[in-house]
């Protein structure tokens, strides 16, 4: 009888905080209705990627032979109203964090955020088997081929870091991966 009471007590001690947190939670939900996080109690850091113009791959990874910039990881605190317990939430927070950084936030370190010029909505994220489908909507402000490479690399490298061992597909404005490729055409 003592063992059963101990087991029941343990179960109650585990379930009560979960019930309380879910009752108080205002965390967003994924496309299948699963809650993406818990209420905020502390800040959370995510890694996003920024551009170091003209670095030529010295301090980061070289963007391309035609664009001599480097792409570098930067750890930032999220401004999200919830703390992630789900990989989908971490991906969401990473993309929202990079979108909200001002162009000159890391200017003192010689870093730029070309995505600050673009107009993107918060993404929708779905896990299908082992692949994340990232649905992005909005527009990119692309003024040169280098600008296109910078913005595309920022999102793709941030996603690579956030999804871990999973793969991802970007569906841009409902046009699938083809729309993602066309999003960076210089106008």
Characterize this entry briefly.
The chain has helices spanning 2-24, 87-100, 145-163, 176-182; strands spanning 37-39, 45-52, 61-62, 70-77, 82-84, 119-120, 124-128, 131-136, 138-139, 167-172. It is an alpha+beta fold and 187 residues long. The chain has one domain.
Structural class: alpha+beta
pLDDT < 50 stretches:
2-40
Q: For the residues shown, what is the average pLDDT?
A: 75
Whole-number count of domains: 1
What features would you describe in this structure?
By secondary structure, this protein is an alpha+beta fold. It has one domain. The chain has four helices and ten strands. The protein has a three-stranded antiparallel sheet. Strand 3 (61-62) and strand 4 form a beta hairpin. The chain is globular and about 40 Å long. The protein starts with a helix and ends in a 5-residue tail after the last helix.
Outline the fold blueprint.
Blueprint: H1 2-24, E1 37-39, E2 45-52, E3 61-62, E4 70-77, E5 82-84, H2 87-100, E6 119-120, E7 124-128, E8 131-136, E9 138-139, H3 145-163, E10 167-172, H4 176-182
Parallel strand pairs: 8-10
Antiparallel strand pairs: 1-5, 2-4, 3-4, 6-9, 7-8
Features:
187 residues, 3-stranded antiparallel beta sheet, 3-stranded mixed beta sheet, 10 strands, 34% helix, 24% strand, disordered N terminus
